[in-house]
């Protein structure tokens, strides 16, 4: 076997190993969820496989039962894809950008404002909305990134606060400025030239999904094939070793946060231009940024892996209504997601202690 073939084979084996634990966590989550289905529907313990069949059939039927349902499921998938990739970039650099929620929200706001500009061609208006989302999310994430790089402040705390500032900023603009419609707590519907092309007249699924897929592929290429990606990964692996090798830790922390925020902001702009078409005052966060953390964890911070992970979580969200109609609490969806995250987190904990033990052995042997 040639050296090239060995390299390909080792890459395939490594990829399969990295997928093993996430797939196992999904299997375990379904195994646990079935017991709650049995409790909700009054099944006996001997009817376990009947309950399992019911759960899977309802999820599949509720999400992919026909063309319209499949397209509607993609509406749930698209924002999770953006926020998943956004979180993956931060995680790769050793950062926890919990502020993707606020960055996504600022992307929504920028699209809602830019989308009201009259007289533009779609070939100008749509790219302008995309650029606005990227800038809004990137600049919003640059604040905790700069504070982390310059003063060492915790990016988790700062980005959480930025989430609430973004939330109340949207409410302020919607309720207290001429942009919002008086007494309706909403912005006007964006111009037709700013709306993304839909796949079908029966669903609001749109080309935002394609933009998300291209974004995941582009980010994967940047992280794996460029100097910038190498430096980001180096800082995430060991910031001290990276600085010893001449890589600026501060610069790459800011870069990582800006890139992460830009992707989240792009996701918000795409979601508004493709699906919402206007924004309202918000009583709370939409949750896409927080769900994106789960997507990134399940994908093991691989942007390409975020695609199936986003499809999984989007499928669960899409099927929640049909679950309720079949006397199965929609909380089953959150239960499955929670169990998946618990098991994926367990894998990270195991790796942490393995690395700690390895370092200890090296120190002793040294």
From TrEMBL:
Record's keyword terms, sorted:
Cell membrane, Membrane, Transmembrane, Transmembrane helix
Q: Which GO terms describe its molecular function?
A: transmembrane transporter activity
Quick one: where is this thing mainly located?
Answer: membrane
Subcellular location per the Swiss-Prot or TrEMBL entry:
Cell membrane
**Pfam families annotated for this entry?**
BPD_transp_2
Presence of keyword Hydrolase: no
GO CC, any one term = plasma membrane
Please name the InterPro entries in this protein's record.
ABC_transp_permease
Topology term for the membrane? Multi-pass membrane protein
Q: Tell me what this protein is called.
A: Uncharacterized protein
Protein's organism:
Clostridium felsineum
